[in-house]
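[audit] Reproducing an earlier prediction to check determinism. Same input, same settings, fresh worker. If the tokens differ from the archived copy the diff job will pick it up downstream; this log only records the rerun itself.
[audit] input (309 residues):
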Amino acid sequence: MYLAVLGKFFLALLLLWGGIKIVSKNLQEITGGLLHDFFQTYTSTPSRSFLLGAASTLVLQSSSLVTVMAVGFINGGFLTLQQGLGVVIGANLGTTITSQLFSLDTGQLIKPIALAGIFLYFTELILKRSLGGKVLGGVAAVLGGIELLASALEPLSLTIFYQELYLFSKGAPWRGVLTGALAAAILQSSSITIGMVVVLAKERLLSLPEALAMILGADLGTCVTSLLAAWGTVLPARQVAWGHLFFNFASLLIIIPFWQHFLWLVSVTSPDLPRQVANAHTLYNLLGAVVLLPVVDKFAYLMEYIIKR
């Protein structure tokens, strides 16, 4: 039985990871150099940088990719540190669409999206131009991964590993934060980690406090990707990568003192637990943006002061 569960679990991860990569890669090809032009033209103010980061993440379905792009543009001299930090803060909010997607009943959407993707793909072969067929195929793979993950995780409550993980994550919020951060760092994807947490909540294998703590940790863990990408780049690029980590850590410090109040606020947004978890992720990143975006210039100065090599 355990082999079958493990097989389903890893196949679900493969579908999720592969689907996200397919969507991201093909959307990049479709948009061509548009994102490059947008990054250069529409980052003149912190609010514009923020909106561009959020919109880019919605399109590319990867906050890590948008953050790495910001690091690359700073390294190439196309963006300033302050502009890059605005993009990163926006990317954090944009990635919350993933948790909202995982909280939906996705089973009814797989077949029509897959059929539309196949139709567009064969149309592309005839017309010899990209129409988004592979993008829809990637979306169908992600939705299939969500459904398979739910099926694989259902018997998880019977395993010793889950029971130990659940016991460790209960109690102090920092335990769940640590679990989520380690999972996202290992999987190199906050989207998949957060998706797994939402699915566990959907199967009633996690309560709201544990799920929320793990999601906040996943946002921290995904910073590893931008830190690795910034290795060997110019100083401002390394500063924005560290700024990504500092932003998520600062957002966490803002929430922790009001933990019980935040849990109450999230609980009234929906009677459905998976929706509560997804809404918590959105509200958390929105709150961080509201607090830190107006002082992004001072945030940039802080990064310049702390990260000097």
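[audit] rerun output stored. Observation attached for the diff report: Residues 180 and 270 are 23 Å apart (CA to CA).
[audit] end
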